[in-house]
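Input record (one chain):
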Amino acid sequence: MSPPFILCLDFDGVICHSAVECFVSSWIAYFDLIQHQTPVAVPLYVKEAFLSFRPFIRSGEDYVLIQELIDREKKVGSQKDFDSCIMEAGPEKMNHYKKIFYIAREGLIKKSREFWLSLNTIYSHMLEPLRRHASDTRVFIVSTKRSDFILELLKADGIHVTPNRVYYAGSKSKIALVREILSGMGSTRAIFVDDQIDHLRGDHMEDTEDILSCLAAWGYVKEEWLRESKGVKILLSSSTDILTPFASYGPFLAMRRAFMQFGCVSFSPFVPSSVLAKKEETYQGRGPARLRSAAVHRLSRSGTAVPFP
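The corresponding structure, as predicted from the sequence alone:
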């Protein structure tokens, strides 16, 4: 018998805090492999600028473009501005950036797998629920991150998801991919959680009846997305919000109850001012403490420059 609903989760920004690793891999890709001129240190403003660009990201090649834009001191204030930069770069350049980005990441893994793992951290409120539900055939991961990387990161934290439930979207619309999974499972409803609002809306997303689209407020989101989330429900981690159930969801009521049983998040029809003022992020550590602290120290230490190995 087919399950009545499925749960589809994005990876970066929903399950995993990966901004540090993406910064490191894209830095190596842009400066080491493209420019062939590696700075001796990472200026602190570069890290801050990278994090401000992060919500605009949809795929791996975008990280390398961010490094280029920061290097060129290009100002980008919106998703529209960033998309214009992608258009200006063109498909040939962006495809090259994707290839180089993965070469850099794979080189980093080969050189120091433990260090690479330490740069990625599973959100603490997602860790235990994922371990409990890893074998649940209704739970899927839909991401623009390659599946092999996702599976390795999950395995390192004791989360054993079967490969056939981890989907690499590539350039395909995530909404379209969620519908493919729905069709393949013979299910009629899906909850789809992402931290990039364009992935959630898709084409005419506001008119959809088969997918409940949820924005993960703990991820890499822009403040205005939380205020202007038409057609998208806001999800808050249980550590930052009191459960506020929606009054009515029609056919999604049973799905909502089931998702609450997943045990990691709450739905909210509003966004508390505390979340808008400061989005707290808590992470579950992994690997040797010295590696974790080194990664944080490298990218968050105060001062004019941050040493980089």
